[in-house]
User: Which sequence fits this backbone?
């Protein structure tokens, strides 16, 4: 299928989640035979303990007199500052639900955590493990959540839901040192109604979400309205999250499944030092949408930085990439990330809706190695879409090799280092290293005029045949393409190069994270030194991919020479 048609039917993606059933409270009468624990009449907040060697007739207020079952603890109506502590290393059947009127605040949160040694395990039967509905001021720490076969279809490890009318977000959510596996979604945070806001001040750190069906970690909200843009969730920090082996649903052909981290309807968000790998392998073959390692849609002011996304797959003919800025994303940045060995693009910037809301985004100082393994109609970096505008792509390093590319050998098609498709304007591509072993360096759908898409200061290197596709024409030299296209010039002078950057990654593998050193140029003296992206009116930021402070003289690519410190010369 042509790349331009890959996501033609995509609207804002919504992760469908079936939450645990709410506890039904009968008023005006007691339910015969059901014991409901009573809160102490005075004082508080309180800490409650649960252990398999406890007794539900205990007061539950000390490790020496714990309750026995999670179901018993679930009957408590928690108040600000309360803690529910489950014995570490023990396994608890059942689930926990916090409803409106429970929970706390940033100053006095309700905390659910383990005590003793190790993580407590919550193992629900066919439902979600922890559901927080229409309330916040909640912290969940040090737990392992394990679903069964039925929960894999309709449960969530941790589900935060807001269905309250109005624009007020519910504040303070913390999920730390939690593992969630065997659910439809590992962790999901959503606004369930068109009139609902979501959550704010959200921190998800040191979390592992794996072997779930539809996603590892997902945020979602109401459908996006470009005329009145609103975002369900505000002020997110997602740090050191591992999302892997979330397989996708082979039965689901109407929506994407199998992503690692998916952010929808968020603003002011950061995803930092997280990893998504080996997701999406069982996503539906007939789906019009596929999974991604880490991606964002219907959102604004999102930063993806210092993350790795590798070996992500797709069961269909679409997606399966490392990172993506999808429909209706604005004022967002992908920087200092590594994508490698994904089925689809390493870095995708895409708009499939004519809203004009996809604008002012940046892709900089990233590395892509051997992406588009299954789908060569993508590439290392791919940008296209309807009314997409004002995109900067600079100081990235992309290496594309033919080794292991079965689709290329079968069809004679090689993925390019950079693919540009129609529908965009105001796109600037500067100071990147684009390297292949004979595949196309750039594949552009049209012969774009510099007024629409401009390329300047890039290094186009091939260890095999040099080839570049520009609209209907194919070029075998940088000089020939420059003369025909009016690209790679500044003030009437030529820019760009075809010099060998001496990247080990053209011959040696890039391993999970540590192998990024193979994408560092060893022939920096052969690359032209100028002011990098600065030469073209772009502020490149403070540091390169490795966190080295940028000097005055920059070369192409994500890794920059170390700045010489005054007084060190000649020592």
Assistant:
């Amino acid at each position: 299928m042509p790349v331009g048609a890959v996501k033609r039917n995509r609207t804002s993606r919504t992760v469908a989640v079936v939450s645990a059933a709410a506890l039904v409270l009968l008023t005006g009468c007691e339910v015969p035979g059901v014991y409901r624990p009573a809160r102490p009449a005075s004082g508080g907040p309180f800490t409650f303990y649960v252990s398999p060697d406890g007794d539900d007739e205990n007061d539950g207020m000390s490790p020496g007199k714990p309750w026995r079952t999670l179901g018993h603890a679930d009957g408590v109506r928690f108040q600000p500052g309360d803690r529910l502590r489950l014995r570490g290393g023990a396994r608890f059947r059942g689930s926990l639900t916090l409803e409106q009127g429970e929970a706390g605040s940033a100053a006095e949160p309700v905390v659910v955590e383990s005590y003793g040694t190790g993580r407590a395990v919550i193992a629900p039967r066919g439902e979600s493990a922890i559901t927080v509905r229409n309330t916040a001021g909640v912290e969940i720490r040090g737990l392992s959540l394990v679903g069964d076969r039925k929960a894999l279809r309709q449960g969530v490890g941790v589900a935060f839901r807001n269905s309250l009318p109005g624009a007020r977000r519910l504040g303070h959510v913390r999920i730390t040192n939690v593992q969630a596996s065997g659910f439809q979604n590992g962790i999901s945070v959503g606004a369930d109604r068109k009139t609902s806001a979501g959550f704010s001040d959200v921190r998800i750190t040191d979390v592992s979400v794996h072997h779930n069906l539809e996603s590892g970690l997902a945020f979602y909200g109401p459908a996006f309205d470009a005329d009145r843009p609103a975002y369900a969730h505000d002020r997110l920090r997602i740090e050191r999250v591992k999302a892997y082996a979330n397989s996708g649903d082979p039965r689901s052909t109407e929506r994407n499944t199998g992503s690692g981290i998916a952010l929808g309807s968020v603003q002011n968000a950061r995803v930092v030092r997280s990893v998504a790998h080996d997701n999406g392998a069982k996503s539906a073959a007939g789906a019009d949408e596929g999974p991604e390692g880490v991606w964002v849609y219907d959102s604004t002011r999102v930063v993806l930085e210092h993350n790795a996304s590798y070996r992500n797959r797709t069961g269909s003919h679409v997606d399966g990439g490392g990172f993506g800025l999808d429909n209706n994303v604005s004022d967002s940045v992908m920087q200092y990330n590594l994508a490698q060995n994904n089925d689809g693009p390493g870095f995708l910037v895409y708009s499939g809706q004519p809203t004009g809301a996809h604008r002012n985004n940046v892709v900089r100082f990233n590395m892509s190695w051997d992406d588009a393994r299954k789908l060569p109609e993508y590439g290392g970096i791919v940008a296209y879409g309807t009314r997409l505008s004002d995109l900067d792509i600079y100081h990235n390093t992309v290496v594309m090799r033919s080794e292991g590319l079965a689709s290329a050998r079968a069809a004679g098609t090689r993925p390019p280092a950079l693919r540009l498709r129609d529908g965009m304007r105001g796109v600037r591509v500067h100071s990147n290293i684009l390297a292949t072993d004979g595949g196309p360096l750039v594949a552009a759908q049209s012969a774009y005029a510099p007024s629409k898409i401009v390329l300047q200061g890039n290094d186009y290197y091939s260890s095999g045949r040099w080839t570049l596709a520009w609209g209907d024409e194919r070029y075998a030299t940088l000089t020939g393409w420059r003369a025909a296209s009016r690209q790679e010039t500044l003030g009437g002078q030529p820019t760009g190069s075809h010099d060998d950057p001496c990247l080990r990654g053209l011959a040696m593998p890039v391993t999970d994270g540590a192998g990024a050193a193979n994408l560092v140029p060893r022939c920096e003296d052969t690359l032209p030194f100028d002011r990098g992206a600065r030469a073209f009116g772009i502020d490149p930021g403070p540091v390169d991919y490795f966190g080295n402070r940028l000097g005055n003289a920059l070369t192409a690519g994500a890794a920059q020479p170390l700045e010489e410190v005054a007084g060190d010369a000649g020592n």
Residues 44-519 form a domain with the Pectate Lyase C-like fold (CATH 2.160.20.10). The CA atoms of residues 39 and 76 lie 7 Å apart.
